[in-house]
Write a structure and sequence with these properties.
single chain, mainly alpha, Arc Repressor Mutant, subunit A, 59% helix
Length: 75
């Protein structure tokens, strides 16, 4: 796992939305970007964190202190 990765603000927002259970389409609507762009952001986050899926993105984001698990679903 890439514990040294420091996400930029956009990646952090996408990571938080993924951890909140949002789909690429929902992330796109929230951030005013295309669904394809949201998908690319998610793929880059997976690569940077060295994980294979969205649940793992959320778990690693929580482990690294990038996502507050108590705030999930509060948006």
């Amino acid at each position: 796992m890439a514990s040294y990765w420091t996400p930029d603000l956009c990646a952090l927002e996408v990571l938080t939305l993924v951890a909140d259970g949002r789909s690429d389409g929902e992330i796109a609507a929230e951030l005013f970007i295309s669904k394809k762009t949201a998908s690319v952001h998610v793929a880059h986050i997976k690569d940077k964190l060295g994980v294979g899926g969205r649940v793992e993105i959320a778990m690693e984001g929580i482990r690294l202190g990038l996502v507050n698990p108590l705030a999930a679903g509060q948006r």
